[in-house]
């Protein structure tokens, strides 16, 4: 009797399984069931430049877009409405109210706001890009080795310059942007220590307008060009668009973009004068953090994205970079091997 009951139960189970597999299941783009029946809804808070800056924010947005497509997560995106902590706190609280978990803040200026809102919401994981000052169990810092990528585009600048003078435009005079300048200068001088590198910063704290003022970027780049520079690298967020335009107006000069492949998003005459861009793979950082969350990694701490993990690099979209490819690759291998330790200040 027991054998007959067992056989009957087995047959019923097989029939049930067949019925389940016969009908395909469609998963909504607003939910992902990577952990049982849990839905994952990501929140991302951009700085005041927002999406469309063709630089830092767009790189973060690209990582979110990839996660929506490949991981089927839902998402809410906000841009801070003011340049103070109050506005950033409001943006993060809006994401929490929308049911977002994890919540990702784009830029070190969110540090104070993250500290406040993470304490209010211990059950939510917060990630912040470019800052490791907030020590909490539910806050993870996504950090990048900008100096390594900047070293590589510095090599490109050193190889491409004909005047022996190159320039650097920094958005705001802060330690983060000093890393870009230090790596760039070291890369230039690895080609020829006699090449002159001149730097200009657009603002100093507490004034952070240097990240969102194309007019300031244009004026700073124009001054560098007037001083004899024929290659200008800008690490200035949205202000960099003005720097690119200033370079494009000078025959024979080259611009170097930052964060995203700015050649790919530029138009007309500006596009052709972008020799390369320092790629800061914020897209990879955002995507991988969402992926880790889905897999159950809910811990705070810090994660670093360097050259070894494709966290930084350089763009090859413009064929004009090809004559310098061998030099760039040799520099990349020297960093990877440890033969070159790139300075960060």
TrEMBL record:
Check the UniProt entry and state the signal peptide residues, or none: 1-22
- Where does the UniProt annotation locate this protein? Cell membrane
- Extract the InterPro entries matched here: BMP_lipoprotein, PnrA-like
List the residue ranges forming a coiled coil, or say none: none
Q: Where is the ABC transporter substrate-binding protein PnrA-like domain?
A: 47-344
| Pfam families for the chain | Bmp (PF02608)
Question: Where's it mainly located?
Answer: membrane
Sorted alphabetically, the keyword list is: Cell membrane, Lipoprotein, Membrane, Signal
Identification of the protein by name: Nucleoside-binding protein
Q: Which organism is it from?
A: Pseudosporangium ferrugineum
